Amino acid sequence: MLMRDYRFPPRYGPEWGSGGIFGLRYHNGVLYYTLAFEAEAHFIDVKTGDEKVYDFTLLGDAPTSGGDTYNAVEAVDEFIYFGGWVHAPAVYREERRILFHNKYSHVHVYDTENDSIRLLWKDSIHHETDWAGEVSDILYDPANDRLLIAREDGHANLGIYALDRRTGKAEALIHEPSLKGTIVHDTAFFGIGNNFTEGLREIRALDLIGGRWSAFKLGESVDGRPYIRPEYGPLASAYNRAFAFVRGGVIAGNPFMGEDFRFFRLFEFYTFYAPFRVNAINLGGGILTAYNAHHDAVYRRDSHVGDMEWTSTNTIPGPSVLVYIAPPMVKIVGAFGARVTSIEKMDGKLLVATNTTPNTGSTEATPFDTGNRDIVVLDEKIVQENPPAVSFSLPLALPSMAKNLGAGTFGGIPLDGYREPRMVLYLSGDNRLTVYEYDLSLPGGEAVSETFEVKRGKNILDLDSFSGIVSFELERPEMKGKVRIELR
């Protein structure tokens, strides 16, 4: 593959912290991605290396900033449809603020046959501090030859919209905020809920043939323990089921098959470690996605949002991991830094876009993107190889404080491919630890559990007698200790 650039250091692009490389899509011999916050859409002819860069000035005047931070892209026939949001022009204030009068939500279309770009649709409320819902996902509806766009991040015009891909006419189908969706059989499933207040609240389903909507609850946890704040990233489809990847786990199922949605705890650390601002792709009949260590964060500890938000968004329990889902197996296939922003497959290779820096908050803007972003090229056979050595470390005060919210079960660590996994517990007093063992079998079965006496000081628990996925719960709160889980 011929590319001029694989690495992108900080450059002009007023916004909050760092954007990233989003929307990676290989289609009809062209590789597309958007570089945010620079607001640059790149189109590369992978045979010749010829590259076209578009600055979104069909929306307004330069200098532009923004682009896409949720991977809103779809390919149909010879066209690549790419969406998101853009400041055109960008207006930065010295008091670390961005003005939003010129912020537009958008969908563009790139014709791979004649190398042309057209603005298909745009929307703005031209407000100083608020904005119209960003385009965070684009699905093609083959039954009605239209685009379905999801909009959750914003203050107005949220929900699911149907967009005519020829005329650009948009029609609101529902007004509940929705970040992501996926198509299963003849139904489009969408997550409903606001990620910065509650997370995923329910799943709505649109019958693409009859046009009817249905609503479904999220369901109980396979390990039998409560879960909280399932902020969600991508939805994906495989096995005639919908998979919603959320903070702390995966919600999978299909009520139209007579199977309720179930919650499978996965990478629950009671931090903002989550599959957020990343996509999921189908690979080898399964699903490949990432859980990110540092995608969104409060930068200043004295920020108005409070100390708890600073702690939960800046505690780094482990590396970002690339995860392959092939039920009942969940397998870690890659370990990366702060976050993975986009994933695509091309010619037997995996393109993995990464970033060193998260998005930050509303009073923490800079006139330039603050992250170092790059594209890593891997062989897709990594899903068949041994997993990388990975470790996770967590202050036990976080799951202990979660008990006040009715939760507290942590972990959800996939053991597939590891021969010598172990847990090291450092405790300030004697306690009892329950280990829940389960897998991502479909339909979801129940976990089995085993309880161990653990002592004050250092405890080592070998996990090689367990299989599948394991989560943990201490009987009594532990505010001073920590846990380290080592996979090798």
UniProtKB/TrEMBL annotation:
SUPFAM superfamilies: Quinoprotein alcohol dehydrogenase-like. InterPro entries: Quinoprotein_ADH-like_sf (IPR011047), UCP016666 (IPR016675), WD40/YVTN_repeat-like_dom_sf (IPR015943). Transmembrane segments: none annotated. This is Phosphate ABC transporter substrate-binding protein. It comes from Thermococcus barossii.
